[in-house]
Amino acid sequence: MAREQGTGPMSELHTLSVAEAGRLIGARRLSPVALVEAVLDRIAAVDDRLNSYILVLAGRARAAARAAEAEIAAGGWRGPLHGIPFGIKDNYHVADLPTTGGSRLMQDSLPQAETATIVARLERAGAILMGKLNTWEYGTGDGQVYHDLPWPVARNPWDLARFTGGSSTGAGAAVAAGTALFALGSDTGGSIRLPAAACGLQGLKPTFGRNSRAACLPNCWSLDHTGALTWTVEDQAIVLGAIAGFDPRDPSSATAPVPDYRKGLHEGVRGLVIGIVRDLGPAGDAVDPANRDALEDAAARLAEAGAIVREVALPAPLSAYQAVAWTINWAESFSIHEQDFLARRGLMGRALRSKMATGFCVRAVDYIAALRERRRLALATDALMRSVDALLMPGAFHVAPSLREPGTVPAFTRDTACPVFNVTGHPALSLCTGFDAGGLPLNAQVAGRYFDEATVLRVAQAYEATTPWRARKAEPASHLPEPIMPDPTLPPVPPELRAEAERYAARYGLAGLSPAEVAELALLFDKAASAGLAIPRQPGKEDEPAHVFRVPLR
Amino acid sequence: MTEDPLWRLTVAEASRRVAAGALSPVDLVEAFLERIAAVDARMPSYVHVDAEGARAAARSAADALAAGRRRGPLHGLPFAVKDNYDVAGLPTVANSRLRLGHVATRDATLVARLKAAGAICLGKLSTWEYGTGNGGEYGDTVFPTTRNPWDLARFAGGSSTGAGAAVAAGTAMFALGSDTTGSVRLPAAACGVVGVKATPGRVSRHGLLPNCYSLDIPGPFTWTVEDSAIVLGVLAGYDPADPVTEDVPVPDYPRRLAGGVGGLRIAAVTDPGPGFPAPDEAMAAALHAGLDTLRGLGAQVVETRLPVPAEACFALSRFIGPPESASIHEAEYRTDSALMGTALRDKMHGGTLQRAVDYIAAQRQRRVVAEGIDGLLSGFDALVTFGTFRVAPRLDRQDEMVAFTVETAMTPFNLSGHPSLVQCTGFTPAGLPLSWQVVGHRFDEATILRVAAAYEAATPWRENRAPVR
């Protein structure tokens, strides 16, 4: 459900953008206390249905709001984030608060000792933490929603029957519904951009190394990125400016300088070369017609604004990037959760368990082949990227699927071009490109050169400025539709495959499998082996992995 | 009194004589070709001698000198490389039937740097197949097994089998090998020469046939520490063709050799930890005597322990080396494994079956080893410990060969990325070289060379040459 915005900026404080609220606070026309209360009211009004939060920090937020108000009254305004309420996916640590990762395994864990670097940077900039947001278990899964986690799944504020996109489920729901003005998510294969796409937001996965990952639960070291989901592109520029930059606590953090992302944001796209990627290979055939039309409309608008739009092609079909991303993700994720999987897998939700069982079966040579292919894809994609100023292409192919049609849910996570940029490390933003006939958000992806988030934002801003989409706000309905459970039936498993899986499980210390688990493992064993063998092999022995041991060790 | 033959010259002395016009590159190269002709059939250290190429290079080096152009400190000095380095125009067979007929079209970066400094390539040195193996000699690869010039019945150390033997026997003035879990330092130890495994990122791997992306390091073999300093100074430095090389300044290693060890704090590890059988008594006695020598020179020597035992480090490397090797040679393994020698094929079998999670676990544990050794070194200028635990074994004792290769204190520093070198610490009564290992802070090769140079100057071991003739 949607409606047009109210009459004045103060009428519905929770619908303010970060930039608008920041300007009002900076001008002392809005108190952080009033803004935080408005957001707490909004949470109270809608979050029983939305499930965007795992933990609301009302007392902490109110105290921070009072302190901000006093500081600003004393002339100590810190900048555009001072007094701005935000939420974080519950895989970011905050000192003295528990982190659950959305998992039963961490449901009762002790408070953390340290705060994630980028959360601390936001708090230093004066932003006010409202709470911990919902997530798929440990920020990952197999694409399906099984309704078996300790916290009910977040719902899409545009249609509560629908999924928000994962894995930063609560972040997407919160920013779209105004239970936070912006949110931090994390993105391994699209987990910021997919909820942004499903919920009509702008979601940026910056360059690998741009944002610190310190004190954020890992999902896959090689592909994990941290970043924000915001309502507007300008909000992205404000938040990125506060969180980006080198962090000695994160060994993958880059030392590249951080520009002022708001400077030049409104300079337009005149003369910029924007490559449009229409053909993603066979996997790209699944793009919804409405998303395709919106992509063409975006290209036309950018051309009208003076950009030189040129059709280009990625150096490999989308499926090549997806294959590499999945094998790396399965293997590293399993390394992270191996002990829990072997000892306590009954506490895992099915989506995580199924991913773990796949990772359990990946061979080292296939993982290394994927890292080697990653390097080739990244170098070839970078050559393309350096020939343009930015790329415009599909992101998520579908609109948010309905939880009442569970058979359609996995396709939302599977059919996307988001993993391309986790594999290559280039910055990529999911841009809201309007709404389909049913009122569901459409999206496209804008990608740029390494550490050139500024141009990505500038292109996105030029598009956003010519469209009315930011005036439309989501208003969650009062009725919460019941989800329908996915069909648990597995396809038949040949007995020899079942026996092979059983032997393999026993060989590597996975005990006590039920017959259904053996059957599932057998199918995943087959899947991991086929996927691994399908990773292209490099022509030269010197073609090495995307990351090798480096010193100094950071 | 007859003068020493030219093949006995050190790099430093030959460099001085060439610079002074007292030694012709042509004479020097001829002396080495004669030496090869005289002794190499019995060792053999070479798989390919490029006599014509070397003579042509020597003539042009002589011409350049005559014209007043000395290209660098290695002008006119003959070297050879393990046959896993590319040298333009020469085959890179790497002792593999799978590469017969291959001819390189480019120089490896290190070979190009040596040539640019005026050095002359004599040819390609023997190696285990693809620079790897399990310590065993199965006699089923392309080239005959290299023998140790101190005792031809004994092993020369692997996988850079020809490099240690060549420098010890004087069939090359210096040599390049490569080290994944000891393949420079093992032959250096077996043959009583200096072998340097630099910090990863210090020397380019470009043009070197890979064995394990995350552990491979090229390195020089020389007779003296000063020679290592001269050669490393030419080899070291950033190479855009190798994504691992670091753009950090390269010190003037020869100048940094002076100064001795007075006042240096040196960590001594005389117990490599549980898991491996104890080092030979002669090796341990030489280590202790050497530490006394350093004390006598004014160093402060403090006993300490490795944060992770050497045996545990070796066990970790078994989950990194085989799967990376299996990835590198996968296509050949799938279609032509019958052409591989036993040692390589066994490694491929194991690497192919390993799980990704075990590989990743080993890489994660590697960080623990690296940080532990960083912590150990933080209060010291350098660390001295065992290299190999034993002297070179007899070639007919397969079990001793495997033990020589596996049971060492070398792997911790491959995992951790700290620079280390092996040098000779004397000889057994039977005349077999003893050795130790000197380890330093990352990118501080200068200090380990300085420690080794001080030890070398205080001991008589460089006067004793291998008896092969």
From TrEMBL, chain B:
Gene Ontology molecular-function annotations: catalytic activity
Residues annotated as domain Amidase: 27-449
InterPro entries according to UniProt: Amidase, Amidase_dom, AS_sf
Gene3D superfamilies: Amidase signature (AS) domain
One matching Pfam family: Amidase
Transmembrane segments: none
Protein name in UniProt: Amidase domain-containing protein
